[in-house]
């Protein structure tokens, strides 16, 4: 830090002068484009054919109304998708790009949009550079300029770094020279393309599903067509029938309802501190069977405190105090009086090394602590304050910095000291030991001591120093100074969250760069593993990988704690888990975690601690970095999936019922039971209110007492098939009975259709209630927990009865008023569907658990 930076007032003034540091937003789907996209679906094509058929047959009213319905449906779909998109954009703003700058003489992290020319910016690996920078100072600095030029290059002092490019390695500082539209990338005007949005897998599956239905319809229509033709029926009647069948079979409301369900899930997840970057990740998180989590910061609070120190002369010290508080005395083990650095030279040397190989910033003002940087580095600064050593730093000027990168496992610096140039190194014990010449006996002592500290859950770092300068970081012949043990408390809610995962049969693994014994101890406290389990290390994994893939898979399958793992190995672990059929959620924060995050089914990155690169590669971002938020997200994801199933059930079973009704009518040579327009009305208007309402169903409470569904489980599993078939048969058969008996009793065709349509509307209302739970009785589901659905039912009835009395509409739909007693009889008839479904649910519960009869616990996880 070689500057005081701008004052906040000056920065504010410059911001007003130059404007926000942002580029014009890439053009998202506009309302009009979304509207046009709506017409790209099998359903619409079929309806368009229907319109043409009606025109050919001269049925202008039908053609007109089908077109109106088509437009209305597209409009509703557009509005729903547009608002979902807006909500997603708003959420994306909750994860802003950040930059570390110096303001008022202190490093602070600011939203990159508030960068101004003249700002002093500090860059480190993983940053997406927020502005064009004149570099003044750099250490092993590398930038990936592919956003601009397509190559990755090293950039050194006195060069420039450009907005939009990525820091892949090292550190640099410099002055902002251009922001916003004045940057190179702003000048290119052409915006960085984030890639084309591919259709999410869920949507693809639904598309396939609709396509298959469309094919099935064509076959059924062809059959019925030939059948009626052989009978010598009127050709235009047959066409009409075909259109009606097509309309009934296609679940028109499905895409819109799914979008709504996902959007609701997205909002609920945001409340649980999970920001969704890709809408479909909502559903993916619900299906995850394996969560692979970082340790530091996700399972722990990332507040490192040095608790113990062990010197090479075997003196041992205890350090009091916690977190950033600068009071806390240091005692030598077994001595009553606190020590001072004047009498303990080894302690002084060790602490000084920890202060020199350090990138953090810590200033105690009377009113406020200014802390910035890595937790490990800050812990050393706190120790420096406790031992009153920080003033020593004035006698040292830094010549070279070898910044900490997680794949290296250490940090170092070369400084000019009163005794001449000096190398200071701190880092992982094994790493630092290789840089020192140690006797076998000493090595053993160090390893024993490390093991002891790690066994107590401490993170252990070793420190070493030596005289001289260094060109590269391949140090040798250093003097080993000692070990430091840092505690980093577990997050208090992490243990509970791990327990919830166990209940939900989701496997949890810890993946860390830390020491295997430290990792194992913490994992045991978290109950991720039991007393007898072991950790597997990165080098064991790479040995196994060198042997063969199946050996690697075996190691991954039999362990839950992965320690001393290199970032690139995270990706291999992810791939292995996927090979073994897991549906993997993987967390990550560093620059090298991006491939693993992209590869996992659900990539999760950290909002606070994570780098820009990690956040850009993830599909979810945790705003509080907390493991338990992932678990809350999983519940929301499961709710969304269940609700999508409910919507599909409602739509498909009513569609199937309509087809069944038609097939029966054709078989018994009756006239067409419902006109195409009537079916459209039924499917889109009266049913359309309810399918979307099902997307609002709250948690059933058993989301966490059930195992995750198998990644390959089809939406149409046995339960779904049974329920669809049974309810379609009941509805189709009864509706046919009503239609046939009415005709038999001499009622006119039009009146018979009127009754049949009313019955179908009632069926769908009853069925909307049935759809609320797949196995719980409606008597158990809290009746008012989804007011939107109840309202939807009233609205559906209201609209339909209203239409009977609305002149133009009732003519087009061929409706006429039904008296109250008939309505009541129809309602009672429709209730049969409710009874049948309740009986099926009961039988399903018995089958799932014959001993109890009522196996589905309604225990809500707290
Ligand atoms: P984690 O998975 O817990 O985040 P890291 O990859 O950050 O683990 O750390 C791995 C090892 O690197 C640590 O055990 C420690 O020895 C070393 N280390 C971590 N942070 C620093 C740092 N700031 N300076 C030097 N060494 C560090
Ligand atoms: Mg770390």
Automatic annotation (TrEMBL):
Family: Belongs to the cation transport ATPase (P-type) (TC 3.A.3) family. Type IIA subfamily.
SUPFAM superfamilies linked to this entry: Calcium ATPase, transduction domain A, Calcium ATPase, transmembrane domain M, HAD-like, Metal cation-transporting ATPase, ATP-binding domain N
Start and end residues of each Cation-transporting P-type ATPase N-terminal domain: 1-59
Organism: Shewanella sediminis (strain HAW-EB3)
Translocase listed as a keyword: yes
Major localization listed first in the record, in broad terms: membrane
Transmembrane residue ranges: 43-76, 209-232, 238-264, 647-672, 720-743, 778-800, 820-837
SMART domains in UniProt: Cation_ATPase_N (SM00831)
Molecular function in Gene Ontology: ATP binding; ATP hydrolysis activity; P-type sodium:potassium-exchanging transporter activity
GO cellular component: plasma membrane
Localization annotation: Membrane
Superkingdom of this protein's organism: Bacteria
This protein's record includes keyword RNA-binding: no
Membrane topology: Multi-pass membrane protein
Pfam families: Cation_ATPase, Cation_ATPase_C, Cation_ATPase_N, E1-E2_ATPase
GO terms for biological process, alphabetical: intracellular potassium ion homeostasis; intracellular sodium ion homeostasis; potassium ion import across plasma membrane; proton transmembrane transport; sodium ion export across plasma membrane
Keywords in alphabetical order: ATP-binding, Membrane, Nucleotide-binding, Translocase, Transmembrane, Transmembrane helix
The protein's name: ATPase, P-type (Transporting), HAD superfamily, subfamily IC
């Amino acid at each position: 830090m070689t500057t005081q930076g701008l004052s906040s007032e000056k920065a504010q003034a410059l911001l007003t002068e130059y404007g926000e540091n942002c580029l014009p937003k890439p053009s998202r789907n506009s309302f009009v484009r979304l509207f046009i996209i709506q017409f790209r679906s099998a359903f619409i094509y079929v309806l368009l054919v229907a319109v043409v058929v009606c025109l050919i047959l001269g049925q202008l009213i039908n053609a007109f109304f089908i077109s109106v319905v088509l437009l209305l449906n597209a409009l509703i779909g557009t509005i729903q998708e547009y608002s979902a998109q807006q909500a997603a954009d708003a959420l994306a703003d909750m994860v802003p790009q950040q930059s570390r700058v110096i303001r008022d003489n202190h490093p602070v992290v600011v939203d990159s949009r508030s960068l101004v020319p003249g700002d002093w910016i500090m860059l480190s690996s993983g940053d997406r550079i927020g502005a064009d920078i004149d570099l003044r100072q750099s250490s092993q600095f590398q930038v990936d300029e592919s956003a601009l030029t397509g190559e990755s290059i090293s950039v050194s002092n006195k060069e420039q770094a450009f907005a939009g490019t990525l820091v892949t390695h090292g550190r640099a500082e410099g002055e902002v020279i251009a922001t916003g539209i004045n940057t190179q990338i702003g000048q290119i005007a052409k915006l960085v393309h984030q890639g084309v949005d591919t259709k999410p897998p869920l949507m693809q599956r639904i598309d396939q599903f609709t396509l298959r239905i469309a094919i099935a319809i064509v076959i059924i229509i062809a059959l019925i067509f030939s059948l009626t033709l052989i009978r010598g029926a009127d050709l235009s009647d047959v066409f009409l029938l075909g259109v009606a069948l097509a309309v009934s079979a296609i679940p028109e409301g499905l895409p819109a309802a799914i979008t709504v369900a996902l959007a609701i899930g997205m909002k609920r997840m945001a409340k649980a501190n999970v920001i969704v970057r890709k809408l479909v990740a909502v559903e993916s998180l619900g299906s995850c069977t394996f969560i692979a989590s970082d340790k530091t910061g996700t399972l722990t609070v990332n507040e490192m405190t040095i608790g113990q120190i062990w010197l090479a002369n075997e003196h041992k010290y205890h350090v009091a105090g916690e977190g950033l508080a600068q009071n806390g005395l240091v005692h030598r083990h077994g001595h009553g009086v606190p020590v001072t650095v004047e009498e303990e030279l080894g302690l002084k040397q060790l602490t000084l090394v920890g202060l020199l190989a350090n990138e953090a910033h810590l200033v105690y003002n009377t009113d406020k602590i200014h802390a910035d940087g890595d937790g490990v580095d800050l812990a050393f600064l706190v120790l420096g304050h406790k031992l009153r050593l920080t003033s020593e730093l004035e006698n040292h000027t830094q010549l070279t910095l070898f910044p900490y990168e997680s794949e290296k496992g250490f940090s170092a610096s070369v400084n000019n000291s009163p005794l001449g140039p000096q190398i200071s190194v701190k880092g992982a014990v094994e790493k630092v030991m290789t840089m020192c010449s140690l006797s076998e006996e000493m090595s053993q002592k160090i390893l024993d001591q490390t093991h002891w500290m790690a066994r107590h859950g401490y993170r252990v770092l070793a420190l070493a120093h030596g005289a001289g300068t260094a060109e590269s970081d391949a140090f040798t012949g250093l003097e080993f100074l000692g070990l430091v043990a840092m505690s980093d408390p577990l997050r208090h809610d992490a243990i509970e969250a791990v327990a919830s995962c166990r209940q939900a049969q989701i496997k949890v693994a810890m993946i860390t760069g830390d020491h295997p014994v430290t990792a194992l101890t913490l994992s045991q406290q978290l109950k991720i593993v039991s007393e007898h389990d072991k950790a597997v290390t990165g080098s064991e994994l790479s040995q196994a990988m060198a042997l063969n893939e199946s050996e690697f898979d075996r190691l991954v399958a039999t362990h839950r704690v992965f320690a001393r793992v290199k970032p690139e190995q995270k990706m291999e672990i992810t791939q292995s888990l996927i090979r073994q059929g897991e549906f993997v959620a993987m967390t990550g924060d560093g620059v090298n975690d991006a491939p693993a995050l992209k590869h996992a089914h659900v990539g999760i990155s950290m909002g606070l601690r994570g780098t820009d690169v990690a956040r850009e590669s993830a599909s979810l971002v945790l705003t509080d970095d907390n493991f338990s938020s992932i678990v809350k997200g999983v519940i929301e994801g499961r709710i969304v999936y269940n609700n999508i199933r409910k919507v599909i059930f409602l739509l498909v079973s009513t569609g199937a019922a309509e087809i069944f009704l038609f097939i029966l009518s054709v078989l018994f040579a009756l006239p067409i039971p419902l006109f195409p327009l009537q079916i459209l009305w039924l499917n889109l208007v009266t049913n359309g209110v309810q399918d979307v309402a099902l997307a609002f169903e709250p948690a059933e409470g058993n989301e966490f007492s059930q195992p995750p569904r198998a990644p390959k489980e089809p939406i149409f599993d046995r339960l779904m098939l049974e329920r669809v078939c049974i309810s379609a048969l009941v509805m189709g058969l009864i509706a046919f009975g009503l239609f046939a008996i009415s005709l038999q009793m001499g009622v006119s065709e039009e009146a018979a259709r009127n009754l049949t349509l009313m019955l179908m509307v009632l069926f769908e209302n009853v069925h909307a209630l049935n759809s609320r739970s797949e196995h719980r009785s409606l008597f158990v589901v809290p009746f008012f927990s989804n007011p939107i659905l109840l309202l939807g039912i009233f609205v559906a009835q209201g609209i339909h009865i209203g239409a009977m009395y609305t002149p133009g509409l009732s003519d087009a739909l061929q409706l006429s008023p039904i008296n109250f007693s008939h309505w009541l009889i129809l309602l009672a008839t429709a209730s049969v569907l409710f009874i049948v479904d309740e009986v099926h649910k009961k039988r399903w519960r018995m089958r799932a658990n014959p001993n109890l009869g009522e196996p589905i616990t309604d225990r809500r996880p707290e």
